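Please, why this fold?
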Amino acid sequence: MKAVCATDLSAASEATIESETCLECLGRIGIDEMHLVTVIPSNVHAGMPGMDFEGRRRRALERYRSVIEDAGFEVETHVVRGTPHRRITGIAETIGASLTVVGSRGKSPLENRVIGSTARNLARTTVTPLLVNRIERESDDPDVVRQHLFQRMLHATDFSENAEHAFDSFSYLRHATQEATLVHVETPKDPGPTDDDEPEQRLSELAAQLEEWGIETRVDVRQGDPADEILSAETEFEPTTTLVGSRGHSRLRRLLLGSVSEDIVARATGNVMLVPPRRTA
């Protein structure tokens, strides 16, 4: 499996790349080839006096390459120009990536680019599963908030097709997952369940699949605002990553996600793995 790791060369972006535990977790789920991508923004010109942006970025990526190769991965590097989230998404599509990884905080010392905004735009447009890796917010030497990326998963589901597609990610995440919490939030707008359609029963059926893989699993049905309740569950259970499906509305225009997915990406304290809908031919 291939993964794209997007970096703005900030200290925060380096945290994932330099974390042996994070790299081990990616290896456990089947990632064996990493593509390091950094984007020179369109408004930064090569001829600016005293600024060899491309050369500096290539030298930085070569340092990262050696770290990741030492961890056992094949590595390719890409220094490109353009709009960061569009170029990152384009490279992920071109190479057939199974995952895109981006840090959720950090300001680049080179061009004052904020990786947080890139993460937000990737969440709105990604066509591959996106891991938003949460980095310490206020630190001169930041570290990842949760090193064991997939050890304790919280999966929020509304039983939609998109949520089922996100749940299917456990087919490979299970190799790094020890515990899982399955959460469903009922809202006043939900239709009343039928006798054969109780949320607890449906969650229990999903839990049984995970337990067959040796994953200790709990189920949790809540009432209220979905984003607030999912974030409350994150606070209570402290997962290393929250797994959710997105609702993409257009492949052509940059439209918002469903508000629940966007809220979780923006407000979660830990990592978030966002799985876009299945692509149609």
